[in-house]
Model the fold of this input.
Amino acid sequence: DAKTTQPTSMDCAEGRAANLPCNHSTISGNEYVYWYRQIHSQGPQYIIHGLKNNETNEMASLIITEDRKSSTLILPHATLRDTAVYYCIVRVENSGYALNFGKGTSLLVTP
Amino acid sequence: EAGVAQSPRYKIIEKRQSVAFWCNPISGHATLYWYQQILGQGPKLLIQFQNNGVVDDSQLPKDRFSAERLKGVDSTLKIQPAKLEDSAVYLCASSFSIPRTWQNTEAFFGQGTRLTVV
Done:
């Protein structure tokens, strides 16, 4: 799996959009960008994934640059419950290999 | 749908003692993973099972760690003897295996077992 780079930590005010960046300059053509998050004292939870087109679901939006070397996870209206560590992972879709986690970005949503 | 169940939630043991963790994956999920998460780090894969066979155990410290999934459903992870550096959260996850492929859909994680070795 290609390596990713994420900021160590970020802050966001409640109700504002949280934009979490991820760099993956060595991503391969068949690798997708996956996002997971881990709320304190819980296991990681899948959020969203995409290949090259922007994706949106009930949790978040994923914007992938045209050259696919970076992406941004957007939480449109952050709440206190979105405080968590967010992991960006690149991998082949439905890979038989396990997820390879980095250190992620610790997002703190403040009142 | 029930999630991945793990027990116990917390465990405190002295170094050189043994400990075992139990995991019950989501029904129908053939693939099961054990991860170790040290404080401040992302989860690190210890072992991956497909049914009752081992797919990847390259990062499992086999001198002290063992894992089994005898009937292809529940799994146990054991540490014997424990060291101080084994203090971590042990996460179990499972995923659905697409039939006749070597592909797995998204992984679902349990809440983990927090181990403290003193």
